[in-house]
Amino acid sequence: MRLRDVHGRDRSLCVFYGLFGLAGTAVMGALAVAFVRENMDAGPYGVVRNFVHDALTNTASQFVYADLVLIWAALAIFMIAESRRLGIRHVWAYIVGAPALALCASFSVFMYVRQLKIAAAGDGPGGRRDIRNIREDSSFDGAMDRKGRRPDTVPLPRAGRRQA
Predict the structure, then answer these.
(1) Are 133 and 121 spatial neighbours (Cβ–Cβ below 8 Å)?
(2) C-alpha to C-alpha distance for 29 and 101, rounded to whole angstroms
(3) Do 54 and 36 form a contact (C-beta atoms < 8 A)?
(4) Cα angle 43, 44, 50; round to 5
(5) pLDDT tens digits for 100-159?
(6) H or E element in which residue 28 lies
(7) What is the C-alpha to C-alpha distance for residues 51 and 39, in angstroms, rounded to an integer?
(8) How much of the chain is in helix, strand and coil states, percent to nearest 5?
(9) How far is CA 44 from CA 31, 35, 98, in A?
């Protein structure tokens, strides 16, 4: 599904995530270029060494760096769970993209793709959708009973009723 096929609230969210991802890429890319320019004389290894040193120099920078690492780990778990639920491929690229450029850029792109998947699972433009049915619309080939129902939809026997 493409953005032109998405309407209503889903389109607004996709536009927001897309613009936020572009802005995050531009801002963080500019900051990365500025840092590399300042440390260019140290060579590629020296740039990384200087970045880690600067990130861990004082308590304030340690706080920000630790916070980013911990939120990145939590968001990685969220992205893996959502990618499995919605059938989003290549989730590793979004997770690796966070330290490679910026968490705000990679997570925004993931949310954009996620919203496209949610919109694709909807019942029409701007229609209401049941998130529980997304898995059935994707390529999930889970276990089914003899009548083609998922195990969580199989009715349980009533109490006092004999089973054959």
Answers:
(1) yes
(2) 7
(3) no
(4) 85
(5) 889 999 999 999 999 999 998 874 444 445 454 554 444 445 555 556 655 554 454 555
(6) helix 8-38
(7) 9
(8) 70, 0, 30
(9) 16, 12, 19
Do 112 and 21 contact (CB within 8 A), yes or no? yes
Tokens of 101: 């450029």
pTM of the model: 0.71
| Length of the chain in terms of residues written | 164
Give the Cα separation of 3 and 80 in Å (integer). Answer: 23
- Cα-based angle 32, 37, 39 (whole degrees, multiple of 5): 95
**How far is the C-alpha of 59 from the C-alpha of 52, rounded, in Å?**
14
pLDDT digits (tens, 9 = 90+) for 55-66: 999 999 999 999
Q: Which two tokens stand for residue 122?
A: 């909807």
